[in-house]
């Protein structure tokens, strides 16, 4: 990891259509200048879920550059060297990942897949809002870490703890 450039962070999920895309958008906003976020999938769906785009647009995120892509893009020669790799779905955590150049630190921050939510559009939109809140909380904790002043073991323990953090219960109206 270097102090001359922002820390590169890759969020992985199987389909790269919702959770990892949302995480990429959040970190690029809250960590601007300190982090550069990317997302990818082991079996990308090829398009971003429309409900993810709708939520991010509503919250004022720039979404035109967001796209569903394979993690192979980031394991290829010339790809940005990752400092951190986080899996945000259980499937990606259990899959064999490519060998990442530079041996980035990694952790599993599993979040339920909002794209699998059942029900009407309002219920499905709530699932996306819940995923956004969970990811936003974890990314906020991550972005506030004094990364340069932590030894590797302490940092790894903090990354793992963020993934296990329980989100405050949200009152249902």
Describe the protein in words.
The protein is 36% helix and 13% strand. It has 5 helices and 4 strands. It has helices at residues 19-30, 50-58, 90-94, 121-143, 152-164, and strands at 7-13, 35-41, 84-87, 105-108. The protein has a 4-stranded parallel β-sheet. α1 (19-30) crosses α4. The chain is globular and about 45 Å long. The model is unreliable at 169-173 (pLDDT under 50).
Kindly list the characteristics that best describe this protein:
single chain, 173 residues, alpha/beta, four-stranded parallel sheet, 4 strands, 36% helix, globular, disordered C terminus
- Write out the CATH superfamily name: Response regulator
- Poorly predicted runs of 5 or more residues: 169-173
Report the CATH architecture: 3-Layer(aba) Sandwich
Which fold name is given in CATH as the topology? Rossmann fold
Largest sheet: 4 strands, parallel
**In whole angstroms, how far apart are the ends?**
45 Å
Number of domains in the coordinates? 1
> Numbering strands along the chain, what is their spatial order in the largest sheet?
2-1-3-4
Question: Could you tell me the radius of gyration in angstroms?
Answer: 15 Å
Question: In CATH, what is the class?
Answer: Alpha Beta
Q: With helices defined by DSSP (H or I, 4 residues minimum), what is the helix count?
A: 5
- The helix fraction, in percent, is 25-40%
Q: Averaging pLDDT over every residue, what do you get?
A: 88
The number of strands is 4
Order of helices and strands: EHEHEHEHH
Shape: globular
β-strand amount: 5-15%
What would you call the structural class?
alpha/beta
């Amino acid at each position: 990891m270097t102090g001359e450039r922002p820390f590169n962070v890759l969020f992985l999920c199987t389909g790269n259509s919702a959770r990892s895309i949302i995480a990429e958008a959040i970190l690029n906003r809250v960590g601007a200048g300190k982090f550069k976020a990317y997302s990818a999938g082991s079996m990308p769906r090829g398009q971003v879920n429309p409900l993810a785009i709708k939520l991010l647009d509503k919250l004022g995120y720039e979404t035109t550059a967001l796209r569903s892509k394979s993690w192979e893009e980031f394991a290829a020669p010339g790809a940005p060297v990752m400092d951190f790799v986080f899996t945000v779905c259980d499937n990606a955590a259990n899959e064999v990942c490519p060998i990442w150049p530079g041996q980035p630190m990694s952790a599993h921050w599993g979040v339920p897949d909002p794209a699998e939510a059942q029900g009407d559009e309002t219920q499905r939109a709530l699932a996306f809002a819940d995923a956004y809140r969970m990811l936003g909380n974890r990314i906020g904790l991550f972005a506030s870490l004094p990364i340069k002043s932590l030894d590797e073991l302490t940092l790894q323990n903090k990354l793992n703890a963020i993934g296990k953090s329980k989100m405050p219960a949200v009152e249902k109206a």
